[in-house]
Design a protein that fits this description.
The chain is of the alpha+beta class and 254 residues long. It folds into two domains: 95 residues, Arc Repressor Mutant, subunit A (Orthogonal Bundle), CATH 1.10.10.10; 139 residues, Beta Barrel (OB fold (Dihydrolipoamide Acetyltransferase, E2P)). Helices cover 28% and strands 33% of the residues. It is built from six helices and 14 strands. The strands form four sheets. Strands 7-6-5-8-14 form a five-stranded antiparallel sheet. A hairpin with a 2-residue loop joins strand 10 and strand 11. Helix 1 packs across helix 2, helix 2 crosses helix 3 and helix 4 crosses helix 5. One of its GO terms (molecular function) is molybdenum ion binding. InterPro entries: Mo/tungstate-bd_C_term_dom, ModE, ModE-bd_N, Molybdate_resp_trans_reg, Mop_domain, Transp-assoc_OB_typ1, WH-like_DNA-bd_sf, WH_DNA-bd_sf. Keywords: Molybdenum, Repeat, Transport.
């Protein structure tokens, strides 16, 4: 397996603010409460350590260090709450970078779409049906919003009904990229003339186990997964239609 190391550097106002060496210095100060001792553990001179901390403080919107007064050790230095959060953020950004790098070899993952790349590298959900598309229409009705999402390859948009509060929280707008999630039991193999989100496709997989049936349906090379406890009146290779209740569709976005 390919071993990789990504070195994260943060600049503020075009000047170096944080890099692995400076972050390590802050970590040592966090542990022992002394710049001089932290410098030794970070394998740098005291002057180098102080110059780095001073440079960070000059760029930082808030102080990074504060003095401890008194105590058994006669005082010392500790990180401010802002510096503590900086360390947490740095660790988080490193994890995001490392996860993102893993999709380099996954050629099926688009790297020109931030939502797709983020979801594939970081987001895991239990929903069997996960699609990416763009908002093509929005209709507000009282406390609800019906959002139409056009998924490339599908013959028509998928309509999702969410609360107005959710719509506002997601900051949805036309052409915004969204992720559509539908649990397999919510793909309804029985529908009527009043059903919404009706699609047709060929059955590519049909598996029965106890009282459950799992069905995979190909719609223009897009796979839907449905599970049901009712008999499926079609076989592999045959065309079947299904519907999805707009209220049983989950949307996600960045």
């Amino acid at each position: 397996m390919l071993s990789s190391e990504i070195l994260l550097t943060i600049k503020l106002n075009e000047h170096l603010f944080a890099d692995p060496r400076r972050i390590e210095l802050l970590r040592q100060i966090q542990k022992i409460g002394s710049i001089s001792q932290a410098a030794k553990l970070a394998d740098v001179s005291y002057k180098t350590a102080w110059d780095n901390i001073d440079a960070m403080n000059k760029l930082s919107p808030k102080p990074l260090l504060e003095r401890n007064v008194g105590g058994k050790q006669g005082g010392g230095t500790r990180l401010t709450a802002y510096a503590e959060r900086l360390l947490q953020l740095y660790d988080l950004l490193k994890q995001i970078q490392e996860r993102a790098f893993t999709i380099l070899h996954q050629e099926e993952v688009s790297l020109d779409n931030l939502l797709v790349a983020t979801a594939c590298s970081s987001l895991k959900t239990s929903a069997r049906n996960q699609f990416f598309g763009t908002v093509s229409a929005i209709q507000i009705d009282g406390i609800y919003a019906t959002v139409s999402i056009q998924v490339k390859g599908l013959p028509h948009p998928i309509n999702a009904q969410i609360t107005l509060k959710s719509y506002e929280r997601l900051a949805l707008s036309l052409e915004k990229e969204v992720m559509v999630m539908i649990k397999a039991p919510w793909v309804n193999l029985e529908y009527s003339s009043h059903s919404e989100n009706v699609f047709s496709g060929k059955i590519t997989h049909l598996q029965k186990q106890d009282d459950e049936v799992e069905v995979l349906i190909n719609v223009n090379d897009i796979e839907f997964c449905a599970t049901t406890t009712k008999p499926v009146m079609a076989n592999i290779g045959e065309t079947i239609s299904f519907s999805i209740d707009p209220e049983q569709i989950i949307l996600a976005t960045l």
